[in-house]
Task: structure prediction
Amino acid sequence: MGLTRRITIVSLMLSILGLGQPTLADPLAKVKVSSTSSEQAECSGGISERVRLGGEVVQPTTFSLSKLQSLPSQEVTVSFGSAQGQQTHTYVGVPLWNLIQSVGGLKPNPDPTVKNGALRQYIVIEATDCYQIVLSEGEIDPNFEGKQVLVAYATKDDPSVDPQLLGDQGIARIVVPGDVKGGRNIYNIRRIKVFSAPDLRFKSY
Result:
C-alpha cells in the first residue's frame, strides 16, 4: 500500500511539472492537438475567394470579386525587387482608402482624448497562409501621405489586351507603390482589419 501511494504521488508530481506522458484522459493534451490542427488549417494557404474588411470600420463587409469590380477602379504601375529579381507590373483595382470609404469609412479611435486619433490607426492585411503586413492610416489618408495603395484584382501588363484576373494569386492582392522590396505586395489576401495602437502616454518603456 505504501509503495503504491508513493508511486501515485511521484506520478502526480511529474504530471504537474509537465514531465509525465499525457494520456487520453488528459484534457490539456486534447486541447493542444486540436489547437495545432486548427492553426495548420487556418494557415494552409490556397486561393482566396473573398476578402473581409473589418475592425474599426463603420460597416464590416465581405467582398467578392464582382463586388470589388463594381467599385471605381484605378491603375497603378509598380517596380520592386523580389526573389525572382526586379519586377514591373501594372495592376487594376480599388485604392484601399476608397475601399474603406465604401463601407462608411473609419470608426474614430476609441479614445476620444487622443489628438489626431486616426493617425494611431493601422491596417493589418492577411493572406491565406497567415502572412501579414501592416500599413498606417497616415500612409493612405489623402490628408497626409495619400499613397495609392491598391487592392488589385487584375493585371494590365500588356495594354493591347484586357486586364487579366490574378488566377492563382486569388481574388485580390495588395500593391504598395514606392516600396523598394515587394514584401508588402502580398497576394491571396483574405482579411483587412483596422486597429488602433494603444495609448502609451506616460508609460515607461
Notes: The beta strands are 51-55, 61-63, 74-82, 85-95, 121-127, 132-136, 150-155, 164-165, 173-175, 189-196. The first strand starts at residue 51 and ends at 55. The chain has two domains: 2-42, 51-196.
